[in-house]
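ENTRY TYPE: paired fold submission
RECORD: A
CONTENT: sequence, then structure tokens
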Amino acid sequence: MTTANTPEIARLQLAQYLSPAFPVGGFAWSQGLEWAMDQGAVTRSSLPAWLSDWLDHGQGWGDAVLLSLALRARADHAALDDLARAACMSSQRLTETLEQGAAFAANMAALTGRPHKPVALPIALGRACAALPLPAPEVIAAFLQAQAANLISAAVRFLPLGPVEGQGMLARMQPRILSRANRAAIACEADLASAAWGADIAAMHHETMTSRIFRS
């Protein structure tokens, strides 16, 4: 694998890691959004508000902080993995971050020829990107955009929501994504919090659905 000794190469590698083609299985998860859409709690018109809350107060913010901590010099990735696991509010949420993180680590091991211990997804990404010559806010923002895009893709598959309309939603989120990435870049462990109770409850209810498209 090419060493990322320039920002240009590093940006290409970051885009590769966050591409839907990088096999971590993100397409299979909706973070409880499927149940919320099934119950009519999230509709075409209310999806942007759901995504904003996810980014500001929910899993989006939590993962951004964890990624930020994992990017730092001398980060204790094993301890951060424990923290990431403890922050999961439901069984499916824990499985989601661990399975994707394990897949990401396996991909990195295959690409680099070096062992990468399975850890939660934001920790795995932070560990892989820590040496890239890129500012932390850029890495965090790219991760948040990829996660938001995955949620919008889930909505496109479930709601009467067109792909172009979904891309418009993502474009309108970008200033907010940049703002949250800049804030997360200087956050500490005490800033790791969640107040998106509706999303957490939706993720718990999703575990009881008898028919579903997504795994969470």
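RECORD: B
CONTENT: sequence, then structure tokens
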Amino acid sequence: MCGVSKPVVILLAEDDEDDVVLIQDSFRKTKLMNDLRVVNDGIELMDYLKGRGRFSDPSLSPRPDIILLDLNMPRMDGREALREIKADPIFKDIPIIILTTSKTHEDIYTSYLEGANCFITKPVTFQSMCEVVAKLGEYWFQIVKLPNC
């Protein structure tokens, strides 16, 4: 929860529909009562943040408190989106959790260098994803104070 009454708005940038369903189901299973929004690539992510196109109504596209970002997406990948978000003074304070299939040292190092707040390699099973989501929930929504909450 964000503050006393407002749920944390989590924006998931993920192009793989199976991963989206896995993550959504994991949030439900672990009972993380937050507002999980989904965009399919970096361009949609930037449109959401900047309130463009179908995201122009702020009541339907509220500012995220945290972003879950896949690195490997079409059109604009997560690496490009991360750089653009962290270069913008309006959005650079939004914590970004990289949640990707990549395990490469280069992706890990570069993500932190570009401003990611943490890097998680996606688990492949539902049970493992539930464990990761539960730990994310505990850390990011109970222990850590988010900047806009």
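NOTES ON RECORD B: The CA atoms of residues 28 and 130 lie 9 Å apart. DSSP finds five helices and five strands in the chain.
STATUS: closed
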